[in-house]
Amino acid sequence: MKSISNILWHLFIAGTVTFSLSTSQADQQTPPNVVVIMADDLGYSDIGCYGSEIDTPNLNHLAANGLRFSQFYNTAKCHSSRVSLLTGQYCIAAGDVSLSHAVTSAEVLRNAGYFTAMTGKWHLNGEPTDFGFDRYFGHLSGACNFFKGDNSFRLNGEKWDVPTMLNDKTFYTTVANVDFALDFLNEARKMDKPFYLYVAFNAPHAPLHALPEDYAKYKGRYTEGWDEIRDARIKKQIQMGVLPKNQKPSPRPPHIRDWNDLVPWQRDYETNRMVTLAAMIDRIDQEIGRLVNNLRANDELDNTLILFVSDNGACPYDRRAPLLDVEPTNGDIALGDSTPWAWARNAPFRFYKQNQFEGGISSPGIVHWPDGLKTKPGAIVDTPAHLIDVLPTLADLAGASIPGEYPLRELRPVSGVSLRPVFEGKELNRTEPIHLQFSSDYGLRDGDWKIVSFKGQEWELYNMANDRTEINNLAASEPKRLAAMVSKWKKMSLEVLHSPKLANPKMLPAQTPKSNHQWTLFSNSNEPFLTAPGKTVTPKSTRKPRDRNSSIRARKNTQLKRTAETLQLTFIGEDPGIAIDFRAAPISPAGPYRLVFDLRTTWTGQGDIFFTTNKKAVLPKGENITFPIVGGNQSQQVRLDINTTEHLHQLRIDVADGPGDATLTNLRLLDASGKVLKDWNQRK
Ligand SMILES: [Ca+2]
Q: Model confidence over 229-241: pLDDT tens digits?
């Protein structure tokens, strides 16, 4: 299908794009080379030119000679940000991980004569070489061991076995991504084409793994704790002008403990996590330095547009049990993310990855392009921008047109706008608000105003012009404005994202304080607990007796074989899956719940969970949660929040659309505190 699609595309563009190239490039100098660099789970204040104490001289240099956005938005989550970056659309509008309603920037620029290459994390359906990239090295998965990789590595469409050494150095993905990027640039030079390179670092996403030399540089640091580090970052942000002088930082929330009140083991453990994170971020900067030096040595730096962004804010999900006295520098041991350090790393904002509060969606946005930028070197731009603007910007600068039709896909229009006016020091004309959503976290940014909902709870309203840290909720005092913005958000959900379900969201009452069972647990014990938050295991002796009434049923076109450890599913036709009925033995307590399982399947696409709290409802009528399926027979952890305050009556899990196989393990239903309510793999 790949090659047919490519051939059709070339036939399709033969008459149109050639014309557009000759006219739009006539009034333009040589189109710039393009290097887009995306970090993974990097917080707003994690690099020096956004307030960090971490050593990032190369990124600082790009910012000092280019421009920095103070309000550059992502989508708050990994895969959705990648979709928006590549397609200029909101994730759901673009067809989510399938990209079935979109063209990518690689396809657009390749057809404008660019050599296109990508390295790093893909995290979408298929492979980059299916979506316009001439060259690709990296992992298709969302995360992997930095030293050992995983089985999803590909080199130009072929499976690639991860070695222990690469180019006489210990294999480490952050370094390997730039090794291959430099190889690809050499190929582009031989072809005498402008190039588009997209480097998607997996760092500093968990598992936390650092190269020994980088770890050694930070060892012994961070003993002052998150409160001091965060304050220092905010002070620096204000000094350098990334934040206005009168910016009030958000206060430490109730779910984070004062550093001075930690028990000693927890202080040591937390210090070690931040040392490792700093080392990982430092390494990103070193590798960017290597890439920039290579462009400079080839006399290409001045006419290369470099854009540096992150896919979401720092991650609060603390998914590993504490390990003491370890150095995670060889791939055998890893540390997990820390909620309180994520709070400091998203300074001065509230909340985290996945949330549409500024801590989740605001990240660095640096542009370097000496031949093209007309702004003062080191300019700080306060105009909001978003990852959806990247494709329109690149197409504009390359003189390429974004097609309205594409073989085998039903294209939808891009929602982003070209940032060229910003680069020329002019006003950006954005006519539509910025729609914000991931899962049941919602938001809308319209001019100075923003509405936001934490996990589907009551809408909040903030004036970003004087309250960027979202401290003063004006929902009660400005009900008309709130209603108008909510209505606009719903309209965009329907008309732009094409999601009737989002357009009629079931809102939950506000929860105070806000909580998440995967946030770091604090302990007064002198010894660390043995399990990670959200991974609480109920001891066997206290497990509830077997409950036959909530047994699993294979749905149509599905064969189910159970072993002690697994659920083996074979799908023989359309619309297969499994269903679970709790009506005879209601689950207690009432929600919210969390459904977790590990999935391995060859099928790639969108998975669906349907559930209902209504005894009389027949599924799939009810609520629906979607999630991406990685496929490729890779093991994938699925963790889904079921946001309800009622009792669950029926549940349906669809992990395929048609024929295929899947293995589910560790299928469990948890309560909000992470306690296991049902564990289906404990029973024959
Ligand atoms: Ca991410």
A: 999 999 999 999 9
